[in-house]
Amino acid sequence: MWLLLVVLSSLLRIQAWKGSLKCFLEALKMEMTEVTGVSLKRGSLAVEGNDSMAPAEEAKRQKVLDSCLPTGQDGLEHGSPPTSGHVPGPPEAVNAGQGKKNSDVQLEEEEEDGLSEEAEEEEEAESFADMMKHGLTELDVGITKFVSSHQGFSGILKERYSDFVVHEIGKDGRISHLDDLSVPVDEEDPSEDVFTVLTAEEKQRLEELQLFKNKETSVAIEVVEDTKEKRTVIHQAIKSLFPGLETKTEDREGKKYIVAYHAAGKKALANPRKHSWPKSRGSYCHFVLYKENKDTMDAINVLSKYLRVKPNIFSYMGTKDKRAITVQEIAVLKISAQRLAHLNKCLMNFKLGNFSYQKNPLKLGELQGNHFTVVLRNITGTDDQVQQAMNSLKEIGFINYYGMQRFGTTAVPTYQVGRAILQNSWTEVMDLILKPRSGAEKGYLVKCREEWAKSKDPAAALRKLPVKRCVEGQLLRGLSKYGMKNIVSAFGIIPRNNRLMYIHSYQSYVWNNMVSKRIEEYGLKPVPGDLVLKGATATYIDEEDVNNYSIHDVVMPLPGFDVIYPKHKISEAYREMLTADNLDIDNMRHKIRDYSLSGAYRKIIIRPQNVSWEVVAYDDPKIPLFNTDVDNLEGKPPPVFASEGKYRALKMDFSLPPSTYATMAIREVLKMDTSIKNQTQLNTTWLR
């Protein structure tokens, strides 16, 4: 009996320890979400109340008005496809008129996750540190140099997602702000009653009809308290809330009914009715989207669910990070500002405003860049160190490396898959994506990989996946359809942009390595043989012209068939690197046109614009250190700082052009490796 009590006591202690470990790892994971969400500390990790908030504030953020969510669909937190391994539709697929149907996110779910949220959290918490042991460091992807001479210091990046705010800079050079929630006055808009006239049961039946979820060909809604005005509101409600449905009035046994039915089949969902949109109004409603802790694709998926439309009627100029507060312009085809503004009553962590009607959608790449407001908390640098670091960033800038996000977070870097594609090694492409890998993943992915390794049966491996929109699921579906001897076609099932992501990752890997060699060999001055752009054309710097340029003019090529290479030692370094990878630098055309690389040029040093900073003192790690657009709309006063406090934070503001990485600018300030693996090795050696 005594022995039994000892055993039971030990088991209880172990269970309690596991619970504590789970809580710690969850905090650690939140600190280091998505590669850029890392703690940049020298030797120790500070997890001081990540994203914590008062209970009342937490309850407020969790609240979602049930009446606004389409009945029978997931709530806000689960309104998007799973993020682990999930392949969002390619960016061009989201732009109206450019999309490809196979990349649309379906309104009608094909499958469910099948795992409880609690089970997933436990699995992820207990495996996160192990997964990070097998990730990449900056050294692995060629990020090795700094341009400044100041001494580095510690700081916590993205301790709270609200410490990282991104404002898009539009094609006209204006920084996007959410500062107006009013709806443009339009006499043709229906009354606000359209949002309340239908019951929850009626909405569910109409939604099932709209999405062809049952065998009904129509839905009849009895008009209680029959008046012409009431019938008009019901007609308007059905047509505006359920695109694709038409309505008519019928008399049945002395009672009036509004009958909803399909007029144009399934295509009506993707093509809103032309006759329901005022001719004098621009076809696209442009608006500013403020979002917290959601990436752009997930945000659009949520909006499309609430509006009951397909995501491909939305367009935007660029994607934004998840673990941040971001403000950007979005355009949507033939959805009124009134309907969009109504979502402000339904969604937490989203806010829509600054509405206007325009003739055209937005196009990817039209933006001039992004403006960042970043807080690095609990910094250790002296005021002099901070001053030197920020002056260097303002005057010299930083190496324009592709950041760690470009190369994936798992044990199989995306550039390895890209290299295999360029080598035409399709069996290796398949194996790299599907084979078992070191580190932790969701349980169903592990089982899928194990089944693949054991049987090489795509159908059997696919059955292990409850979530089939991930890359692995799409490839397995392709292998089931086309067979193991046609991997090229099977791989082609993956949306085009996601396939190209792999080869672009390889180009980025080569570019990072070559730029490090260029700076090591020649420093921060232009030299004869370097490349500069004149318009869109690259030309060489001659001996007599070298004094006419600065390092900020110098570009280097991403490898391809339509670029030239520097006329100095680095040209041979490109050739050697590609030769070592069994690629011919003189023949970058692929027999599959999609995978032919034309190449491009990229500046090697970027000098941020609109740089400003301040060091502030604070005591409470949970308090925000600056106001957001929503705070300003709500009239909240800006935070007031004491002259002294328990902690110090560096608040930075700067603007960057498109396709540059803010994490690389912050790396230059702190002089720290931004990879999750490096931070984990420093901070969690006890977990090994």
UniProtKB/TrEMBL annotation:
Limits of the TRUD domain: 397-607
Signal peptide range: 1-16
Record region (Disordered): 68-124
Pfam families: TruD (PF01142)
Family: Belongs to the pseudouridine synthase TruD family.
NCBIfam families documented for this protein: tRNA_TruD_broad
Catalysed reactions listed for this entry: a uridine in mRNA = a pseudouridine in mRNA; a uridine in tRNA = a pseudouridine in tRNA; uridine(13) in tRNA = pseudouridine(13) in tRNA
Coiled coil: none
InterPro entries for the chain: PsdUridine_synth_cat_dom_sf, PsdUridine_synth_TruD, PsdUridine_synth_TruD_CS, PsdUridine_synth_TruD_insert, TruD_catalytic
GO cellular component: nucleus
Comp. bias (Acidic residues): 106-124
GO MF term set: enzyme binding; pseudouridine synthase activity; RNA binding; tRNA pseudouridine(13) synthase activity
Compartments it resides in: Nucleus
Protein name (record): Pseudouridylate synthase 7 homolog
GO biological process, one term: negative regulation of translation
PROSITE patterns per record: TRUD, UPF0024
Classification via Gene3D superfamilies: TruD, catalytic domain (3.30.2350.20)
SUPFAM superfamilies in UniProt: Pseudouridine synthase (SSF55120)
Free-text function comment from the UniProt entry: Pseudouridylate synthase that catalyzes pseudouridylation of RNAs. Acts as a regulator of protein synthesis in embryonic stem cells by mediating pseudouridylation of RNA fragments derived from tRNAs (tRFs): pseudouridylated tRFs inhibit translation by targeting the translation initiation complex. Also catalyzes pseudouridylation of mRNAs: mediates pseudouridylation of mRNAs with the consensus sequence 5'-UGUAG-3'. Acts as a regulator of pre-mRNA splicing by mediating pseudouridylation of pre-mRNAs at locations associated with alternatively spliced regions.
Alphabetical UniProt keywords: Isomerase, mRNA processing, mRNA splicing, Nucleus, Phosphoprotein, Signal, tRNA processing
